[in-house]
């Protein structure tokens, strides 16, 4: 395995940007806008593919994958009753996701050129996460009563598991441009258990591995959060430093690690555990709390951190002006963020602009990069 060395460069340039949030759709118990009434999308991460937005939602019995653009909202795929869909992710060609229940998996599917097809390879058991490294090369998160493991459609990753025969927990994988990254926690789900981040740059070379202090006494990281992001040339993650601060970290192709933002600085008071997201231009979005105790969505760009969306910001909706807010602040943001080369997406709670106790629903919010 390749040995890493760590270089910490902390960028402390902060500002607040006057971004313009736009409402893409809205839903609530009593009414909705653009989404069929009775559908809910809490905690599901939106993403884009071929200029369309995709979002997983449920009516309570059936989960559906919606395609959203300026002209209409349509259903791309729906599950069988009692089955769930994993969040779709970018694959080698198109989007991929699994359909699963506690008893097993119905299938893994791919959306390519606006057509849905079922993959021929499927491991036995419950698959609640899938990523793709190349044509016909898929990795599945497979679960049973003892924990989680990865199963592949090829044999290149068997050496990872031979290193760790003890009980282990594999978190949802992330794949892009022929690469793969994921977190592995050994022994138990306790925070004091060893954490390791794996980054496979290709199938021909050994992965880069970043270990926390429980796995490597020389590491500067106390633990890592559950998911990572990939851009092709960088892996990003959120973790806790041995000094006690939460931090957003980035690893490059040579294994060098930088701290891009950390708690206790000019703008960022807290960093949420939810997944950070990165695009091909190395722009990163992550959730947290600013120094005024407002929930915020932060953008890291060219060594500078900015708040681009905050608790209290005003949004134009189908019901007039509304604020991004909620009586329970930790639930203001209803999903992990997403960023591509043209926009940022996130779900937020919306309240009446004159009466913050009146919730008007959850909105899928879009911020165009050109407006930041």
Characteristic terms for this protein:
372 residues, mainly beta, Methylamine Dehydrogenase, Chain H, six-stranded mixed sheet, six-stranded antiparallel sheet, 34 strands, 2% helix, disordered N terminus
Using the CA coordinates, give the radius of gyration: 20 Å
How many domains make up the 3D coordinates? 1
The CATH superfamily label reads Peptidase/esterase 'gauge' domain
Flag low-confidence runs: 1-14, 158-162
Number of helices: 1
- Architecture per CATH nomenclature, i.e. the level-2 architecture: 7 Propeller
Give the distance, in angstroms, between the N- and C-terminal Cα atoms: 41 Å
CATH class designation: Mainly Beta
Shape: globular
What name does CATH use for the topology?
Answer: Methylamine Dehydrogenase, Chain H
Q: What's the rounded overall pLDDT mean?
A: 87
Strand percentage, roughly? over 45%
Decide which structural class fits the backbone. Answer: mainly beta
Strand element count = 34
Task: Please provide a brief summary of the model.
2% of the residues lie in helices and 52% in strands. The protein has 372 residues and is mainly β. The chain starts with 12 loop residues before the first strand and ends with a strand.
Structure write-up:
- This protein is an all-beta fold and 372 residues long.
- The protein has one domain: Peptidase/esterase 'gauge' domain (Methylamine Dehydrogenase, Chain H, 7 Propeller).
- It contains one helix and 34 strands.
- It has one helix at residues 158-163; strands spanning 13-16, 22-27, 32-33, 47-49, 52-58, 63-68, 73-78, 84-85, 89-90, 95-101, 104-112, 115-118, 126-134, 137-144, 147-152, 168-170, 174-176, 179-186, 195-200, 208-211, 221-230, 234-241, 246-252, 257-262, 268-271, 277-278, 284-290, 295-301, 304-310, 314-317, 320-324, 338-339, 343-352, 359-368.
- The strands form seven sheets. Strands 1, 25, 26, 27, 28 and 29 form a six-stranded mixed β-sheet that branches. Strands 2, 30, 31, 32, 33 and 34 form a six-stranded antiparallel β-sheet that branches. Strands 8, 9, 10, 11 and 12 form a five-stranded antiparallel β-sheet that branches.
- The longest helix has 6 residues, at 158-163.
- It is globular.
- The protein starts with 12 loop residues before the first strand and ends with a strand.
- Residues 1-14 and 158-162 have low confidence and may be disordered.
